[in-house]
Design brief:
The chain is an alpha/beta fold and 204 residues long. It folds into 2 domains: 33 residues, no CATH class; 148 residues, Vaccinia Virus protein VP39 (Rossmann fold, 3-Layer(aba) Sandwich), CATH 3.40.50.150. It is 29% helix and 16% strand. The strands form 2 sheets. It has a 5-stranded mixed sheet with strand order 3-4-6-5-7. Strands 1-2 form a two-stranded parallel ribbon. Strand 3, helix 3 and strand 4 form a beta-alpha-beta unit. It starts with 10 loop residues before the first strand and ends in a 9-residue tail after the last helix.
Amino acid sequence: MARMLGGDLALNEFAGLRAGLLGRLFADAPVTRFDAAPIHDHLDADLIPNVILMNPPFSALANVKTRARDAALRHVASALARLAPGGRLVAITGAGFSPEVPTWRAAFTRLQETARLVFIAGIDGKVFARHGTSVDTRLLVFDKQPAEDAQSFVSSVGMAPDTSALHRVHARTICADRFLTCSDQDCADCTQACADTRGPAARL
């Protein structure tokens, strides 16, 4: 999609096998193999993306044998530090990583001092069943601009039972919020949501 819209890609994957696959799929795009928990410290200074898509490990850090509860937080925070002002970060994390979980509320407050959380949705694990996992996950979307009130959070829209439901509610909330127009002519749900920019908040 980025290529279709004229964008450039910069890819990072720590695991060797997946990095190799990315290199084959996107032969003309750079593929790095940095530990992404401190990704902001590793990348070239002139690489400032305006969109970041990420699926950080839920509880593992590179070269650390014990479980790391804050793995997702470290990855998201470092990626947000690298994101261009006004840019957008989209992450799939573990289901428990949410400002609605008291343990993480203070961490999300700190994140919102530089990047506003604009969308939260749970994803039912069965969505990924054909890929060999059934773990519930969470979709988080941040915009790189400080929240007016860092301690106030957008509410989760609920748990998406499938990708179609997730797309519909995402279109209704995120697309409308930023006054974007879907370029896919077959996407009636997104087009309608973008047209109705002042509609009620959507829920799954």
